[in-house]
Design brief:
The protein is an alpha+beta fold and 626 residues long. The protein folds into five domains: 75 residues, Immunoglobulin-like; 74 residues, Immunoglobulin-like, CATH 2.60.40; 83 residues, Immunoglobulins (Immunoglobulin-like, Sandwich), CATH 2.60.40.10; 84 residues, Sandwich (Immunoglobulin-like), CATH 2.60.40.10; 234 residues, 3-Layer(aba) Sandwich (Beta-lactamase), CATH 3.40.710.10. The chain is 18% helix and 35% strand. It contains ten helices and 43 strands. The strands form 13 sheets. Strands 23, 24, 26, 27 and 28 form a five-stranded antiparallel beta sheet that branches. Strands 31, 32, 34, 35 and 36 form a five-stranded antiparallel beta sheet that branches. Strands 38-37-43-42-41 form a five-stranded antiparallel beta sheet, sandwiched between helices. A hairpin with a 7-residue loop joins strand 21 and strand 22. 30% of the residues are buried.
C-alpha cells in the first residue's frame, strides 16, 4: 500500500483561500498535478417591498362584516405563495373608507409592504323611512316627528348612520323630512307629513232617506280626523240653529218632527281638545221634508160598479192618489191622482168583479223635487167578516216558502181569538230577558228588594236596550235561580232557563244547569197578554214593564213594517241561527199580541226581513176586518 503524500504548506494556504472566496481547490485532479477551483453555493435574502402586490378591489360595500379581498404577490414572473413566501394582515377593513392589507415576507423574503382597498358606504335607498306621525296639529312652532330608518336586518341610528333635516314644518301644509346618510351610509331618503288646522274639515254629502211622517233619516260622508259630529236643526221660530244631537256615527234618525213639514239640518265635525269641542269652521245646510201623515178616509157609498171615497186633507200634501187592487195577490194601481185641494173621488171604472177588491188613499208631498208618500192602510170594497183562521192559513202558506223553522202565535186582545202555528221551543236569545224582568219585579212586589234608581237603570238596560251585561248583573245580584224559579212558579212550562249570557260578566257564575235557554211563542204571548191586562204580578208592576217594552230600542222587526204612528211594545232576540220578536200592537180598535220565532241555521239575521213581512200580513188582516 502506498503512503499518502503530505500536503505542502502552500497547498494548504491555497485551499483556505479558495474556501474564503467561495470555491474549492482540488489537487492532483489531472495527471500533471494541476490545482482546480470548484464553486460553492451561496443563500441571498430578498425584500418583499421589491415585489409587486396587487389587491383585488371588488367594489366592497359596508355591511358590518370584515372585508378581506384576495391578494396576489409576484417577484418578476414568479407568483409567490401565501404562507410560504409571505403572510397577510388586514386592518381598517369593516367600516366604509380605505381598508389596509399588510404583506409580510417569509422564507427567502423579508420586510413588509402595505396596500389599500376601498369599502364603499351602504346606500340608504334600500331602507324604509318611517315617520312616527303622518298628521300633526298646527301649533305655530316647527314640528319634528320621530323618524326611523330600517330594513329587514335592523334599524339605523340617527346621528351615527344618518342625519335628519326638516323643512316646511311650521305652517299648515305638507312638511318634508329628508334623511342623509353619514358614516357607513350614503344616499338620501325623503318623506312627508301633514300639518293641519286644529278644526276638522267640513261635512259633505248629507242626504235623507227613509223619512216618515215624524222622522228624517240623515246620512253624510265620513270626515278624516273627526271624533264625532254635531247635528243641528234650524229653529224657524227662534231663527237660529239648535244642537239636536252629538253622534260618532255617519247617520242619524231625527225623531219627534211634524208631519208634512220642511226642515233644515246641518252637520259639523268635531274633535276634542283639552275637554273642549273643536268644530269644523264651515258647514252647509241641507233641506228635506217629513212625509205627510197617513190619510184618514172612508168609503161613503158602494154602487153598481162604483165607489165613493172621501178623505180628510192632511198638512203638507201636494197631491193625493186613490189606489186599487182587485185582490190581495194583485199589484196596486193608481186609479187617480188629484191636487191637494181635493178630498173626494168617485170610482166609476176600473173596478173588477163588480165592487170587489181593496182601496187606499195616499198623500204625496213634493219638496225640493223629492216626492215623499204617506203611509197607508187598506179598506175592503167587500166588507165580509173573515174568521181568524183565514189569517192562520195565509201565514201557513207564506211560511212554507221561507227558510228555517217558523212558529207564530197571534191573539186578538179584544175578541180573545187566537191561534198558534208550529208552536215549538226555540233558542231563547234575548227573549229570555223578559222573564228576568218579571222575576225582579216579583221580588220588588214581595218586598225582598227595593226599587232604586240603580235598579231601574239596570231594568231599562235589560229590556229597552237588551243588555247582556244587565241580565248577568241582576241574576248574580238577586239570585241566579230567580228567573228559573219565577218561570216554574207561574206555569210557563215550555220555557227553560239554565244560565246567563256570554256577552255579560261572570257568565260561568250564572249557569244553573246544562243545555240552553228555550222559549216558545205561546209562553211569550201569554206573558205579553198578562202585562197588557195588568195581570202580571200586579197592575202597577205590569204598567212599569209595559213602559220598558214601549221604550224598546230595537224596533226593526215587528214594528218596522207597520204604518208610522202605530204604537207597539216589543222585545226581540237575535243570534246567528235565530231571529225572534214578540209584541203588543195597538192597531186602531183592534189591539193584538203577536210572537214570531224563527230558527234558520246561519240565516238568523237575514230572516228578519221575512219576519217583517209576516208582521205586516197580520196587521193588514186586523185592519181589514175591524
Amino acid at each position: 500500500m502506498k503512503k499518502a503524500k503530505p500536503i505542502c504548506t502552500l497547498c494548504a494556504a491555497m485551499m483556505m483561500t479558495a474556501v474564503m472566496y467561495g470555491g474549492a481547490l482540488c489537487a492532483g485532479a489531472g495527471n500533471n498535478n494541476e490545482t482546480e477551483v470548484i464553486p460553492v453555493s451561496e443563500t441571498v435574502e430578498k425584500s418583499i417591498s421589491d415585489c409587486e402586490v396587487k389587491v383585488t378591489n371588488g367594489g366592497y360595500t359596508y355591511n358590518g362584516a370584515e372585508k378581506k379581498p384576495p391578494v396576489t404577490v409576484t417577484d418578476g414572473d414568479t407568483v409567490l405563495k401565501e404562507g410560504t413566501d409571505y403572510s397577510l394582515e388586514y386592518s381598517d377593513n369593516i367600516n366604509a373608507g380605505n381598508g389596509k392589507v399588510t404583506v409580510t415576507g417569509m422564507g427567502e423574503y423579508t420586510g413588509t409592504k402595505e396596500q389599500s382597498f376601498t369599502i364603499m358606504a351602504a346606500r340608504l335607498e334600500g331602507y324604509k323611512l318611517s315617520i312616527s306621525q303622518s298628521e300633526l296639529i298646527y301649533n305655530g312652532k316647527a314640528q319634528k316627528p320621530d323618524v326611523t330608518v330600517s330594513n329587514k336586518k335592523g334599524t339605523l341610528v340617527s346621528g351615527k348612520d344618518y342625519t335628519v333635516i326638516y323643512s316646511e314644518n311650521t305652517n299648515v301644509g305638507t312638511a318634508v323630512v329628508s334623511v342623509r346618510g353619514i358614516g357607513n351610509y350614503a344616499g338620501a331618503l325623503s318623506g312627508t307629513f301633514r300639518i293641519v288646522e286644529d278644526a276638522p274639515a267640513e261635512v259633505t254629502g248629507m242626504k235623507a232617506a227613509g223619512n216618515t211622517a215624524s222622522t228624517v233619516g240623515l246620512s253624510w260622508n265620513k270626515v278624516d280626523r273627526a271624533e264625532g259630529y254635531a247635528i243641528y236643526l234650524y229653529n224657524k221660530t227662534a231663527k237660529k240653529w239648535q244642537l239636536y244631537k252629538l253622534t260618532t256615527a255617519t247617520k242619524l234618525t231625527v225623531t219627534g218632527l211634524n208631519d208634512g213639514e220642511a226642515y233644515a239640518f246641518t252637520a259639523r265635525a268635531y274633535r276634542m281638545k283639552n275637554g273642549k269641542y273643536i268644530l269644523s269652521k264651515t258647514f252647509k245646510n241641507f233641506k228635506t221634508s217629513t212625509c205627510p201623515k197617513q190619510v184618514d178616509y172612508k168609503i161613503t157609498r158602494i154602487g153598481k160598479g162604483t165607489a165613493d171615497i172621501q178623505w180628510t186633507r192632511v198638512k203638507g200634501a201636494t197631491s193625493y192618489a186613490v189606489i186599487y187592487k182587485p185582490s190581495m195577490n194583485d199589484d196596486w194601481r193608481k186609479v187617480c191622482v188629484v191636487n191637494n185641494r181635493t178630498s173626494s173621488y168617485t170610482m166609476k171604472s176600473g173596478l173588477k168583479y163588480g165592487v170587489k177588491g181593496y182601496i187606499t188613499v195616499r198623500a204625496y208631498r213634493n219638496y225640493e223635487g223629492v216626492i215623499r208618500a204617506s203611509d197607508f192602510y187598506l179598506r175592503s170594497l167587500t166588507p165580509v167578516k173573515r174568521d181568524i183562521n183565514d189569517l192562520k192559513r195565509q201565514l201557513d202558506d207564506k211560511i212554507d216558502y221561507l227558510p228555517g223553522e217558523w212558529s207564530v202565535y197571534v191573539k186578538n186582545l179584544r175578541t180573545q181569538e187566537s191561534f198558534s202555528l208550529n208552536n215549538k221551543q226555540h233558542y231563547a236569545a234575548s227573549v229570555m230577558k223578559l222573564f228576568c224582568m218579571t222575576a225582579v219585579y216579583q221580588k220588588i212586589e214581595n218586598g225582598e228588594i227595593k226599587e232604586t234608581a240603580d235598579l231601574n237603570y239596570w231594568l231599562d238596560e235589560l229590556i229597552s236596550h237588551s243588555s247582556n251585561v244587565a241580565f248577568n248583573v241582576l241574576v248574580l245580584r238577586y239570585g241566579k235561580t230567580m228567573v228559573r224559579d219565577w218561570i216554574q212558579a207561574n206555569g210557563y212550562n215550555q220555557t227553560i232557563q239554565v244560565g246567563g249570557y256570554y256577552g255579560g260578566p261572570n257568565y260561568a257564575d250564572t249557569v244553573i244547569g246544562s243545555g240552553t235557554n228555550w222559549v216558545t211563542p205561546e209562553d211569550c204571548g201569554r206573558l205579553f197578554e198578562d202585562i197588557y191586562w195588568g195581570r202580571c204580578i200586579s197592575r202597577t208592576a205590569s204598567a212599569k214593564m209595559l213602559r220598558l217594552l214601549e221604550n224598546q230600542e230595537y224596533t226593526y222587526k215587528i214594528p218596522a213594517s207597520l204604518p208610522s204612528g202605530v204604537k207597539t211594545a216589543n222585545k226581540t232576540g237575535d243570534v246567528n241561527d235565530n231571529t225572534h220578536d214578540c209584541a203588543i200592537v195597538w192597531q186602531d180598535g183592534e189591539p193584538y199580541v203577536v210572537c214570531i220565532m224563527c230558527s234558520a241555521e246561519g240565516q238568523g239575521y237575514q230572516c228578519a226581513k221575512h219576519l217583517r213581512t209576516l208582521s205586516r200580513m197580520i196587521y193588514d188582516y186586523f185592519l181589514y176586518n175591524k
